[in-house]
Every structure is written in C-alpha cells, then in structure tokens.
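Why show two proteins at once? Because comparison is the fastest way to build intuition. When a single record is shown, students tend to memorize it. When two are placed side by side, the eye starts asking what differs. So, the first record is below.
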Amino acid sequence: MIDTNDVLENLAVINEEGLAIEDEEKEHEEEDGNPWLPRERPLGVEQLVRRAHCGLGHLANARLARILHQAGARKEAVEYAKNLKCDVCQRHRQTAPARAAAPPRELTPNQIVGVDTIYLPGLQFNGKRKMALNIIDWATKFQLVIPLHDHTPRSARQAFLQWTRIFGTPERVYDDLGKEFRGCFEMMMDQDAIFLDPGSLESPTQRSLTERAGRTYKEVFSKTLMEVTCNNWDEWHEVVDVVTATINRLANKSGYSPIQRMLGYSPRIPGSLMSGGFNDQSTASRYAAGDLQVQRSVDLRTAAAIAYHKADCEQALRNSLHAGPRVWQHYEVGQTVYYWKKGMERGKKNHPYFWHGPAKVILTNLPTTVWVAHRGRIVKACPEHLRPIAEEEKFILTDWIQDILDTKKKLKDGDYKGYIVLDEKPPDALDFQPEINKDFIGPLPPQAPRYRLTGKHRETEVEFQPDACIEKRRRLEDQEQKPELVLTPRSLSIAPTTPARTEDLEPRSPNEEVIDSEMDMEKQSLPEQGSERHAVIPEEINQEAEDDGRGQVRHGEHLDEDEERPTKRQRAELLETMFTQLEQANMNRKRKEINYKTMDKKDQRKFDKAILKEIKNNLQSGAYQALTREESEQIRRDKPDLIMKSRYVLTEKPVEPHEVEPLQKEGLLLDNNEGEVLKAKARHVMKGYSEANAEDLESTTPQVAKDTVFFVLQILASMKWIIGHLDFTQAFHSGDKIARELYCSLPPEGVPGLHDRQLLKLLKTCYGLTDGPYQWYRHLSRVLESRGYRKSKADPCLFILYDDKQTRIEGLIALATDDMIHGGTEKHWSNMEWLKQQYKMGKYTTGSGKFTGKMVEPADDGSILVHQKHYIEEKINVIKIDKARKRQRYSQCTPVEINQLRTLLGGLSWVAKETRPDIAGKVAILQQTMPNPMIKDIVEANQVAEELKRKPDLGIRIQPIPMERLRVGVITDASWGNAGERYLEDSKKDYWEETKTSWIRHHVLPRRLLFHPGAAPGGPDLHTISRRRTTTTSMTTSSDEWDGKDGIREHQEQQWTGRTTFIKSTVEEEVNRPINERFLQLARTHSQGGYLLVYYDANLEVSEQLEMMTIAAWKSYKLKRCTVNTLSAECQSMIQGIGNLHWHRFLLTEISGGRLNLDTWEQELHRLPFIAVTDSKSLYDTVNKCRNTSAHIDDKRTAIDLTILKDDLEKTKGQDLPDDKVPELAPGVPLVYELDANLKVLKKCPSLA
C-alpha cells in the first residue's frame, strides 16, 4: 500500500520534476549514450498523477484535479488528471440511470400489445399466490388480466388466445425474457405473423407501461380482496374479472376511458344510475329486498371502484412526495403582487416582461384562484402564476408614494409654486360665476369678445382676452404628445365668441405646447390657402408656466432640487438601457417624418393639401365615419375602452416619373435641391398600441423575402417577361371590414370641419392598427387565389399562376404589403388589369421601378440591374474626423462618435444585405465591434462608405439564363479565429484604479500572464499612457514594455496576484507611436463564415467555356459554435450555404410544376442538380472520398457535421467541387474573387454590375 505522505510529496514535486525529466533524459543520453535500465528511468508526470490517484483512494477525476491545482502542480498534470482512466474505477462503476421519459408515439388500437406475468394474492385461507397474464394495449391502455393454470408457455399461449378471439392479432407484442414466453408461445407469434419483441436483460423500464399497469392492478386487486370474501376459486376469478372491468371503466385520459377507446362505448352496469331499463330497476328492487346474489355483485363492484380510487390517490401522494417540497404562498386581500401573462406569445421563450403589475389582491379562493386588480381590470389568476412584490420594487413604489404625500403636505402647509395637484377634480364652470350686486348703480362694462382676429392678421398681432368666468385649462391626455402640425379651424368662419358647451371654452394654441421665446413666431402662423381664412387662437405663453391640470397656471421660480437620492440613481441606472433604445428608435422615426414647424410656408400649404386629401380619401373609401357630438359623448361615457388615439404622419415620398404631372396639378410636389422628385404625403395613423387587448391581436406583417425577390427577377429575366410594378393606394382601407367595434379620437391638430370632441368610428382596417398588415394580406391573398394564383410553400408572399395542366407557370407575383413586382403571360396581365379596375392604384407601370428600397432596371440584352444608388448618395455619409483623432486608432469612441458609427453601420448593413455583397464581410466584422468601438473602426467604416460613394450605381446584374438550363449553386468559405469578443479578459473581481499620474490594475484572481492595458474594459486610453509597465507581485517587482510582440507572456511559473501600473504620459513622440495589434488578435476566438449563392447555366457543369451567372444570395456571419480547426469552420459554413441553396432549389422545383410534399421534398429535388464550391482541400477529400469521418478527425462534433453533410449531398444529388476545378463563370469576363471569411467577393464580375 502506498503511503499518503509519499503521495503528498509526489504532488509537490510534480511541478518541479515534470519540467526537468526531459532535460535529465537528454543529459543522460549525451553522457554515455546508453538507454535507461529498468526502474532507473525517473517517473513521468502521468505516472506521478496515477500514483497520486491510487494513493488517495481512487478519487474522482474532478476532485483529483482540484487537489493538484491547489498543490501548484503543472497545467499538464491537472489536464491529465481530468481525463485519467483507471481500470479499478471502471470495474466499480455503477450502471447509468434509465431514461426519465420518452416522446409519445401515435399508435392505433391493437398495434402494440404488452404482455407480462404477475402474481396475484390467492384465497385468504391458503395464503398462496396465483399467476396471471397481464395484457395491455399501449394505445388505448385497455387491460386484460387472465389467471394461468401453471407457469408454462402453453398456459400463456392459451391465455393470450382470449385476446386474439376478441380483438384479433396485434402487430407487435412486447414481452420480457421470462421462460413462459418461449417455446409454443413464440411459435404462435410466428404463425400469426406477430413481431415478438422481448425486452433487454434486467431492463423493466423499457416496458414501463406494462409494468406500471400490472402494479396498479395488483394494488387494486389486493384492496378489493380485503373488502370482499372469497370462499372458493370461482368467486376469486369473479373478483379478477370485476377488477379488470373497473379499471378499464374508471381510468381516464383526455375524457375517455380505455374501454371507450377500445370498444367505442361504455358497457352497461346492472343497477347503475346511467342505465334506465326495466332490468336495472328490478336489480335495485332486488338489492333493497335483500337478494344475496345481487347484493354480492353490487358490493363487489363498489369495493373494486373504491379500491381503484384509493390506489389512484395513494399514487398521487407518492408522486407529490417524490417531487420534493413546494413552497406554499398564502395571498391575502390587499397584498401587492405581480401576475404572469404571455398572451399571444406562447411560442416565445419566457421573458421577464411577461410579469405584469403591480396589482392588488381583491379576492381569494385558495388553493385554485386569486383575483387581482390591475389598471382597472380584474384578472383571475392561479396562485402558481403570482409572485409577491420584491423588496426593491416595494421600496421604489413606497418611495414614490412617500414623495407624493410629502409634496401634498408641503402644499397644505405653505405656498409652494411649481407643483401640480392631480387628485382634485376640475372646478365646475358655474362655480366661477361672479355674484352681481343688484344695488350696484352704473352700467356694467361691456364683455370683451373672446377672440379678436381675422384671417388677415398675423399671429403676433392677435389680441387674446380670456373669459373672466372661465379659467384656462388643458387636457392631460393632450400633454402626452406635443403636436407638430398646425391645421385650419373646424370651419372657415371666425370662431364664435360664446361657446355652447364647456368643452368649447377651452382656448388652445395651434401647437398646444410651450414655445421657446427665441422661436420665430411667424413660423407658427397659419398659411393662407386661396380665399380661406384661418382662425388662429394664440395663447399667452410663458416659459415658466406650468399647468396644474385644473385650469390654473402657476408662475414662479422652480424650487431647488434636493440632493439626488440613492433610489433616484437606482431608477436611472435601470432605465438607462431602455432610454438608449427609445432614443435610437425616436431618431429613426424623426429621420423619416417631417416636422411641420420647420417648413417654410410654401411647403406647409402643400402638406395641408396632403392632409385634406388623406381625410377625403379615408371618408370616401369608407375607412371610418364621423359621429355626431351626442353620439361621441355617449361612446365616451359607455365604451371608453374602445377609443384609441390617432396622429398624422408627414413624410416626403419619392415620386415615379408617371406621377409627376398629376401631383403637380394637385400642388403636392416639393422643391428639392438634391434633384430627386418628392411629394408631400400625409397619413392618418391610429395608435394601435393603445387599443384594449392589443397584445392578443395578430401583429404579423407578411413581407416577401429578399431572396424571393431575386428569385422572381431571375425567372422574369429567364422567361423574358416584362417587369410590372403595382402599388395600392389606401391599401388597408380597400380590404375587408373589421369585425370588432373601434373608435378613435381626432389627432391633436384636429380634422377640418369636426369638433375636437367628436369621434371617428372605424369601419375598415386603418393604418396603425396592430393587425392591419395581416388583415390586408388575408384579403389580397384570398382575391389572388380566386383568380387562380397559388401561394408558395416556401414563401407565402410569393404567388404563382400555373396553366390549366399545372405544369407550366404563367405568372409570378412578389408581394410586399401593398407593393407588387410581377410578370407573366397574357393570362397574368389580364388578371392585373382586373385588379386595376377593382382597386385604386397609386402606381401601375412596367419596366424600371423601385421595389422594397431597390431600383430595378431592365436592360436591352434581357438582363436586369438591381442597385441602390439613390440610397447610397442620400443616406451614406462619411463621419468627419480630424487627422489627430485618426492617429488615436485604439482609443475608445465617445458617445457621440458611437451614435454616428451606429447610424453609418445601419446604412452600410442595409446596402450590404440588399445589393452589395462586396462589402458584406467588412460590414459584418464592423458590426461585431459594437457597443465598444475604437477609432480604427470608424476609419474602416469611412473607407467602406467612400468605396460605396465612388461607385454608387454598382449593383447585382441578373443574367437572362435560359429557363431549361437554370441551375443553382453555392460557394462557401470560412476563416478560423478571425472574430471574437472585444476584450481578452473581463474579470469581475479584478479592477482598475486611476490616480493623478497613473492607472493601476489590481489583480485579485491568481494569474500567470502579464497584463496588457487594452485587455480589459474600463481602462485607460492606450494613447495617453507610457509604453512602460510595472508589475508588482508579493515576491518581485519588474518593469518592461507592454507594446511588443511578447507583451502578453507568462510572467513566472507560479501563479501570482498583485498589481500592474501604467504611467500617464503627454510626450507627443511616445503618444503617437504605433501600437501593436496582438492584444486584439488574441481575443479573436471565434470564426467567421460566408457563402455566395448563384444561379448559373447548366452548361457550366460540363463545359470549360464561360457561362452566365447571377448572384442570388450572400451572407457573412460569425459562426455560432466555436471551432477547433479550419475544417470545422469550413464544414459549418458549407452546411449553412447548402441549407440556403436547398431553399432556392425548392422554389425552382415548385415553379417547374413539381408536386412538392414536405415529407418527400428531397426526392423531388433530385431532378435539379447543383454544385457546392469550397477552397478547403480537407473538406473536399472528406466529403467525396469513402472514408470514416470519425477515424481521422479528433473533434467528434465535426465528424457528425461531416456525416450529415455527406448524407445531404447524397440524398439531394449534389456535388462538391474545389475552387480550382470551377471554370470561369461569365461570358467575356473571367471570375476573379477572394472568397474568405469576410466575404470580399467578386472584384471583377459582370453579375456585380
């Protein structure tokens, strides 16, 4: 036996001797040239670790590795300990646990039958057990128990014949390895062509359903025997039959019993309440009269039923005990809770925002139901879907409430200005009527008119005199969003001086907001349109005025704010992320929308006309109708939850050439200095999110995929069809009527001719409703299907028109909400003419046009060019940065620079995804630098933007490849270890400290490597510190340069803790020195993949001549799984590319008249071969040669991927080619490309026009 002290000594010397063994062997061989004698060679690391394992009592590998690590052993020793295999440990190893569960199978009755023998308790007086055959149908759970004469195959065979006499022979019989299922029992199975499948050795869990049924039967049978008396074996057999019938009758699954599933009905039970015949009545009478036979029969069935329910309850108790303790939460009335609600998002993963609240418990019916009140609604929830409010949430809510109470107290105690009181109702107008003294002598002063204005007066010249009886007030609901548009009044006449209702006594400025004193008031005035006079209602505006919600405006200085409390800081930190997202979304919205106030008067008049046109079109199309004042007030009182808000959305929309003349007549064309023709467009949009239960509506927006658009254009080019463009005007209003009752209030700017309290009743799906796009898609798809079109199985927004024989296509339609691009034969164009007559079209042209943000231009040679010149010239702007800042390549970007880079990358990614594969790789790498980019990333993004600016008209050229020779192929590549995280390390325990002269990194966790200042976040700017670093440990202090090839290296053999100091520097020569990029390369632990999918001429597969090719899809991306070598990365990229390729083959086969079935689609694709190109020789050899993938590949996950890839290529009839075997792919110009992980594709290729 090995001494423990020796083992501990071995652990101590593993680190020391393991380093010197190899040197000692070399010295020994150099001295005398003789090999080591037996037992003379020193012990190696593996032998020392094995001796430690045996000496410590055969510890587990994980525990042994921890001991070695704590003892300071070498890394090789620890790794060997983790993978150590010991024959002694293997011999004492326990068996693995069985599967906890198995997926359900769809079975039919008598398809699989399980058989087993069970021992039943016999008569009470002899104490012997009786064997019986347990037969159960796995589909219906119907059970039949037949006592056996003896334990022989003949008895089992005779018992099983009773099953076959009633139900016939099953397909499969599951038994165990018992001797009673051998011999003649097996012969009977062979004669009846029944597949007999015995279970594995000592593995009852494989037949768990049969075993559980037998256990339940024995338990019910035993409990029944305790309640009834069996004097002979006949009565005992009667109990067996009654228990069998009871279990088959009372067991329930999905509302049906086993006997109902097997026979289709429930057998009659004598004397049961469910039976109403004469015999049942006589049975009850005989039972009451004391008939012993009837009484025994009824008591036996009753005892069997009671025994079954007892066994069922006991099993439920056992399951609850095995499940472990569960915390019971008692909820009381008035308690604050959160409740769980997913709504229509049941397919999504669980997320914290599914918790709603806070809510108050108002009623309990434990343990099943708790009623809670939330936002004026009562929710019935189960206790399992509730959680009490957390301490932090409770603290924050309490803090807010306390603030409100303190403020209210201060308002009562003293005269504090600037506060808003919201808990008091607005005073009634009649309460302010002044009391007139009848004895007052003298005439009253004339009442000043409320408005003194004319349509010819400027706003600055208008005098406003408020009514002395009515205080000015403003609605709180209008304070949520400040309008950006000034509209004409409700009528063309001057507003009345004496309103009829108190709602009319509400003076509002055209903007309904506080205007900056420096703003030009003239820009706020209303434009004149012809002879119309605009009644402008100005307000006396003060920057310091605040509305208290009751009509009282208090002027005064703002109170000094107290010091920021910790709770405020906590709330700010929690909302920081959401604020950033909202800010970005708001910027995107403002980038598209137009601000009415910033326009000149000429453009304002054009947008006024656009608004009037929008309202007129909506009323004419029946989208909504205006209610009267009385009807509106009735709806506001009775159905306030059915009212939503609305707003105007103003945009500048590009105009097609054919639209210029009609728009010029309407006065909607805008002046644009950049040369592009734009029109003023207004849209009346509902705030669909404010609709009650909006989360339960279908919010899908069906949109054709980008790949489908290129597919359609390729087919149009191959078939030489004319390209058609179609756009529906007021598309949503042209659809079906809505099935629910909805109303909307007017926009804050109002609607000409209507009072601001009037409501609009929605009749059709208006813009802004959550389910608007989906309802329009359903309507239009139904119309197209009625005209003979069929939706594609691959993309529901692709509609295909076949001929009468369903073998040849006659038309294609790609649908993007209300835009179409299409083409086809005369049959197709006749359908388009029918659509033009049925719907109002905003665009109905052929040839060149814009679709989904891309310009589509057909050429004379039959090809089609797709580009985004207009977007590149207008939206892609280089970030301005000076030369001094450019030299600071590794400095962190400021928040302003990050926002600029995010905007630029958004535009670059859109262009790279849609029409420019030559920049896709660079953009993909740049996107991975967010949210912590450096200056070098801005420089690289500017280079990509300048590259686009040099050739903005570059795009995808779709070649007219003949349809009969159209094929699809894919080119894939990957690069290993060229993508990854921003920082090399990010320890939560190690931290930075900044002093006046230096930056100090404190190393709390033990480490071996020297520290680089750019390896962790939160550190200094690399261009502001010296290149010298000082590393201080508990033992030594050393100084060296961190910016070198060996700047990140092992410091010492032992792990160390301490600090690393970097001195701040302002020396220009040192600051401007180039910085080595090795610290970034070490952090690149991920791989980048890419693929290029092309349509090509079939002659390419057999010819060496140049053939036509079209780029159809491309992508550059970071591989989701980390790879161990280049082969693994190449394999993942190839699988991704071939998956996309099959989707395009599916579309090609579908339009060719193939009857595709989702189960047999691979067989249908056989007639459409393809090629897959790779530059990896190892991947090519592995896929094409007959070799075992797992034999020469260490990474078994890669071996599995390669096996899947080989099987896929074999099933779908594809061939894998190395890139040097692919001929040139374009007529007249060779294909010259660099296909690496960044997807820098096609330096020169006519497909990239």
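Second record. Ask yourself what differs from the first in the token line.
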Amino acid sequence: MATDVARLSFDPARRYAGVVTQQGRVALEAEQNEQRTIDAEERREVLLDVVGPAGTPDDGYAVGPASGTDLTIGAGTMYVGGLRVVLDEAITTDKQPEWLDQPVVDVDRAGREHVLLLVTERDVTAVEDPALYEVALGGPDGAARTRLVQHIVRRPTDASTCAGALGLDLKGWAAEGLSFDPATMQLASGTRLLVTWQQDPDVGDPCEPSSTGGYLGAENQCIRFQITGIDPDDGTITAVWGYDDASALYRVTPDDSAAPVLTLDRSPVDDHHRPRAGQPVQVLRASAELTSTDGQVEGWVAALGGVVGVLATPYDPDTKTVAFPTALPSDYDDDPQLYLRVWQEQLTGVTLGTPVALTGTGMQVTLSLATGGVPHVDDFWCVAVRPSTPTTVYPARYLRTPQPPDGPRQWVCPLAVIGWQDGVFDLLEDCRHPFDPLTELDDDGCCTLEVRPSDAPRLQALLDAAVAGRSIKERGDRVTLCFSPGRYELVRPLVLRERHSNVTLRGCSGAAVLAVRPEAVKDFGQGMVLLIEADNVSITGFELELPQVPAVAGRVTGLANTGFTAAVSDAVNSQVGNLWVSIGIRPVSCAVLEVADCLFRFTVGEHETTPEVAQTMPRHVFGVGVFAAGAQWGLRLTGNRFLHDPLAPIVGDGARRVLAGYLLGDTALTRDNRERATRALGAARLPALLDDAIITDNRFVGIAAPLLVSARLGQVTIARNQVERCYGGFWLVDSEALASTDLTGKYEVAGGREPAAALARAAVGGGLLDPVLVLLAMFAAVHPLPDLEDRRPRGLVQWESAHTKARLTEATELRTRGMSSLVSALLRDHPTTDPADGTAAPTTTRARSRATATSALFNTPITTVDAPAVTVPTSPTIMLEANLVPVLIGWIATLALIDEEREGIRTTLSVDANIVECAVPDKGTTGPALFVYTRATERGQGEVSNSADADAATVSSNRLTSLHATLTAAVLGLGSAAVNGNVVGGGRNDRTYALAVAAVGAAAITGNVVAGFVFLPENRPFPAPLDTWLPFNTIG
C-alpha cells in the first residue's frame, strides 16, 4: 500500500481543476500525483451524478447458491461510489481471487446473511507486481499503480430486507469505528490524528535559548503512521511509524523453523535501508492475485496489515536474511507469497487523547475518535516534514485539528439479503440497483420513480410515498412508477386506493414480470394488483404470472327473511367447494382504468405436472386476468395477451377449470360474518356498470371465456381482438335485461309458431344457460370484495333484511311482466304459418298475434325444452344443480329491479373486426362466440326510433366460429342493430344455430356469410322473398 512519495498535496476543499506546469521549474512528483488525484476525483463525482451511489448496467454481482453454503457472485459490472469494478467471470465467496487472506470464520450458516461488496483502494509497487520493473534501469523501480481490490463480505443479520440489514450493519460498523455515507457509499473511519511538537523538558544552561520544538531530522521526509492492533483487554493501541512513507517492502521466503528466518528476494538499496536490530518489521500475506490477460498469475497485492515483530539481530547481507522473532500464524504456511515491510519504530500501550512521541523526530501524535467505537486497525496517515521549516508539517492542517486517515479508502455496496432453511439457499431480497445505459432510456423522463426487482417487497411503501402530499383532483399531478426489467416477486398485493388516483404503473421494455413469492401466496386471493376506487390509473407493459390461491371464497350463508334460503346457499357452496382462485388485476368501482400491453399467464394447478396428485386432490380453478366489480367508467383494455397453452379442459379429473380474460358482474354479498369465515347472501349488492369502454387488439388463447360482462351496459367498443382455442368468445349481458328474464317459469304466447318458440328457447337459453357463463356469473356474485378499510364502496345498495322478502315478491311481479314482453318480442317477427302446407298465413297484427293459439316457451330449461326441432342441451361439461339457476337468474339479478332509481344510461355497442374461433379438445361442446343480450324493445320490426336514449349495436366484419355450440352468434334486444359483413360458422344440424338476431326494434342484417342455421326476423313489410333478410346474406 505504501509508496515512496514526498508528500500528499491534494486538498478537495481548494476546488482545483488541474495542475499548471510552468517553464524552467522543477517537475515534482507531488504535483503529478495531485493531478492524478484531481482527475480521479472529478471522474468519481461525475459517475456519482450520472449513475448514483451504486448500480449495475448488466445484472452484475448477482448472488446465488453454490455448493453447500457457499455463494456464487455473478460476472458483470458494478458502480460503487463513482468507482467502476468488474468481475470477468463468476466467483464463489469461499475462494475469492482478491481475498486470498480471507479469515476463516466459524459462522453458523443456518440464519440470515447480508452479502456486501467491499471495495478498497490500494497502491501496488513493482515488488508486488514484477511486470512494473523496467530492467533497463538496472534495479530501481518506477511508478506504482492504484488498484481497487474487491471483497465479498457476508455479515450475519436478523433482518430479512435490504433496508433492515443495512440498518443493523450501521450499528456494527459504528462499533468498529466506521461510518457509512449512503450518498457516496463510502465507509469512513472515525479515528483522528493530531500532530504536535515535543518541548525539551530540561532547559539546561539558563543562558542558552529554550527549545520551541520542531522537526529534528536532517532529511526531507514523508512519515507514515499506521495502527496495527487494539488490545482486546485494555483497549490500548499498537502502532508503527516509518520514514519514506514506509515504502521499504521485500518479497521474502520463510524457512521451516519455529521463529522463521526470512530470505529477502533482493538486497536493500544501501546500508542505511538495511533492517537493524530493534527495528520493527511486518510480515504481510498476499491478498489479491495480479493476473495477466492470458490468465497467468504474475504477482500478488500485499495485505494492508500483518504480524509485527521487533528484530533482535540485524539484517545479514551475506545470506540476505533476517530472523523474525516470533512464529508466524498457521494460515501463513500456504500463502503463495509473503512480504516484509520495514518500519522505524513500534509504539505500544498508546491511549486515546495521550500524545505519543516519534523518537528522534521531535514530533508527537495524539489519536482520538470523532465518533464512538474503537480506532480502526490499518488506518494510516502521511505527514511530510522539512528541515528548512522545522515547525511546519505538510499538510499544515495536521497541526491545527485532528485529521481523518489518508487511507485505506473503502466503499461498500449491499448485494443481497439471503437466508438458509435446512441448508437451502433463499434470496430474501436483491439489494442491487440495475440501470439502463443512457442510450437505452426511452421514457422521455416521465418516470416519477423507477423501481428494481430488489424493491419488490417494498413496492407498496414506495408507491405510498410517491403519492403522499398531492391532490388527486389535479390530473397533471400524475405519478408514474417505472418498473425496470426483471422478476418482481411480490410478498403482498399491490393496493391502489382513492389516494392513488392519477397513477401509472409502467413495465419498461415489456420485461417486468410480476410474480408471487411462494410462501406469501395465501395473501393473494383478491389478486396481484387491487384497485379500490382509484381513478385514472394506467397499468402497462407487465407480464403477470397468476398465482394459485386456495379456498379464498370460503362459504356463503342465507339471510333470514329473504329469498336466499339454505337450499340456495347449499347450491352455491357446492360449486365453490375446494376452490382455487387465480386473479391478476382486481378493480372495484374505478373510472378511466387502462390495462395495456400486458401478458397474463394462467395455470390450472398441480395436475398438469403431477397427474397422480390430481386424481386424489382435484382443483376447481377460477382464474381471471382482470376481475372487475362495481361501476367501471372509461375502461381501456388494449394490446394485452391472456394465455393458457394448451387449452385447459373445462372439466377433467373431476375438477372444473374456468379461466376468463375480463369479468365484470354484480356482487351480491358482504363480509358480514368475518369471524365465522362466511359471507351472507342478500345483505347488500354492488351493481356493475360498464360504460365508455374500449376493448381492442387483445389476444386470448386457451381459456374458457375471453370476456363476460353482466352489468348495465353503456358505450362499449370491442374491436380487432383475436380469440384462439377458447371455449367461448365475447358475452355481453345487460343486468336489467337479465333481471327481467325468468328461465324457470312457463309462458304462453298467442299466435307463435312452435318452431319459432323452439328457436327462441335456443336463442335465449343457449346463451344465458351456458354452464360457463352461469359459473362465472356466480363467482362474480359471491366472491368477496377486497378490504375497503371499513367504508362502503361507491354504488353499494344495502337494505334491511326484514323488508327484503316483500320487496323481492314485488320485484318478481315486475319480472313476470317483463318476461312476457320479452317473449312477445322474440316471436313477433315470425308470423303464424299453416303447418299443413308450410305457406305463410294471412298477415296479422301484433295484437291479433298475441290473441290466438298458444305454445309453451320455457319449462325447466336447464334440463329439457319442449320443442321438436331444437334442444337446449343439458350442460355438456358441468352439471349445475337446479337451485343454482334461480340464485343467478332469479334472486341476484332481480335485485336490480328494487334498486333506487338511477340515472338512465344508453347502450351503444360496437363489435367490429374480431376473430373468434371457439374450439376445445376432442371436439367438445363450445359456447357462443358472440352473445349480446339487452333489454327488449316494444317497437315492431322496422320502427326506427329517433329517441336519444335508444339502445343500438353494430356487429360488423367479424369472423365468428363455434362449431359445437347451441348458438354461435346472437344479438338479442336493443332498439336498433346493424349486423353486417360477418363470417359466421356454426354446427350443421337441426339442434344448433349459427346466427340469431331477435327482439330488435329496427335491424339491418346484410352481407353476412353464415355456415349453419339462422334465426332472423321474417316480417319485413315487403313482398316475398324480400319479407325476410335471407336474400341479403349468404346462408348455407
């Protein structure tokens, strides 16, 4: 470490930018060294400004397991305190090429550890690195070099986070006399040294002038003072000092004797520099390898400290040996190279605050501590003295105030907090800070805060701090949280509440993966990201690995004096028993939510990889990428991918696997009985609404239902989406229409044809009674809401249970009238036909049509339908209990009819340019590719309304295929609808229908290519064949 320098003249307080050489002046090495230090410090300050305290641009210094309890440190680059260090290849902590003298520590590896990178600045001379010799000089060496030596330190800790472990380390370092500056990552010593002059205690002849003190030597010198040890018993200090900056260093070889004789590799330069009796010498180990480009070790950096002994005999010039007075420690035996440093004097029993003389110099030094702890071993100070100015030292500040040591300078960088559980490595937190090169930054400086994978355990705290103290009313005061590429293992869901409005969560480069730490999975029953009344939130660019969470739904109970009886609750519980949920994003009553460019990866449980387990413990899986509740205004669901490959069978091994992309439905329970882990049906209801929604450019692969919305429908656009190998497609059910639909009663309509009635059964029942739709609607209704912090969610409808039954009876009467209207609307477009010859009977009015012959429309449709031509099949994959249908279609939906009067909303649907291909393994039954069910109109075919509140839909340019469904595409209800330019493929038998358009006030159905049967209005007011829509479409 020591080099033969005249003085250290650099002083950062003077703010010098460079050294100016003048003509005719002597060139001083001190000036050249000062210029080198100015340049190095300027570069370090710049890197601190650009990179920050610490960071890696290439995932360098990653901590991982090795054999046993050893650790591997990955190759790469790390910036620490403005210094750049590199590992060309991975290393292990037990065998570090730059820590050959690592002490053997008997540490129990069963607990937690804080892994740190310690960087120490060292000077290397030609004695240590022979490649620095210029042999043409005949022996003398030239300039030395500065090197950064790296140690990977493992400190035991009780903390499980980087912040906690660093806090404990701060206390440990303070006890060692060190302090840590997080802004520069420097580990600084608190030991201080003050220089004073000795006074002559004996004046002698009073006629002689008294001594004022000063330097007594005759040579210009740089004196080095270094602490070598602390007595553990009394705390006294052992130190050494030497002339020429203690630069006299030799390679030595010990013999085998107990007190070894050390052979020097070269003779001292002159007699004055030969070790003398009574002079202290220090044996140093090799601490770091000096390797050439071709991998050959050519030298070793000498350690900072070592064993000190005072010579009893002088140097023997004939044998080039010195006799070391004591035995060397055993760990010196296998050292690749030992070194010997020669000092001038050893000082023992030094105490803090007491001056100690440096014999023969006239100087004395006093050690002190600026902080607590103890003096730091191996600290050194370099003080220059000149005979021409005996009462001055250089730098002069040593005479004024106690000064910090000149070295060794050290920096520390936390890498990871790890744990050991039964000998198994566990990365508790990654403490590194990755960063992108400047040329790869493309966020235009819009990030309020950038987080790293190591921040995963504290994401909530970081987000809360970022939004603190701002007004959510100011949209311009937006917070953008940017996630650097990497895997974020969450330990708890990320929750955004009202105070988190106007927030963007952005995954950079599409490479930010959100996952769940396995031991924390039980806390994710509501999803990975929860949004509770948080408005104007954007979530973009993430990959979400949806977890499997057991038994989050628990059980539901009925409520006294309501229609939710024990039979109803038993029916629901039979479907949610042994349930596993898998939810990505869970928005509740949010406005202007954007989910864009995200990848949702689904799983269906252990049976995929361990079928033996699945046979005995099947999983019922309910998975949703985006599971919404309440009112959703301004939704933007764009550019996402919802993937499970291959398609999971809806039923297999006795387990149901229902995966959905986007789900929104009414919620019909609250957490009334938390202490009993049950939830009461009918206690309250959170109505669902979807308005101003744009769902475009998404891809759905291998799931059951890409989209199910059972809510009040406003303006909804569904365009350019792609559905592959899914059970169903896009299902939009208006909650008011659903509330008016009774599929368990029997209705008679005059004037309807029996085939038309059968077609109506297929059109409505084939969609509303689809088993997957029923199950998803049930899950949406009974799945508990997230913790709302003891407040009612926006839009909650709650009532006294004592009045519920009476109000439900009243609502049922309203539903019966609504159902009669729906039945009439379904059949009005199909005039009576004479069954004898199949020709059309004379045209009748709607009033007359309702006044003649009767036919049954619905009669327990979950199992059978009274129709000779069309059968609504019993669930092909999931057997639903009969009680479940009244739960969903009856009571829960009927609650909408007893809500307080709400502001009207106009339904405007646009379904354009989508590709929907429904297919399941082994040609199993599939669901509708498109099912739109809204309120039926009272107007007749062709009666176009000019009312501003008329509901309308356009369905155009879609490719819709579902070869094994009762219905492939259906548009039911609405004031007007345009169904144009679609390619629809359905089953080619008399039990399935490819396209159904019914109960629409005014329709335009043209340019469609349909493979399969159709159910279209047949009472256009034109002569045959223009009285139907068949001539305007290609149907085969």
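One difference worth noting in the second protein: The two ends are 91 Å apart (CA to CA).
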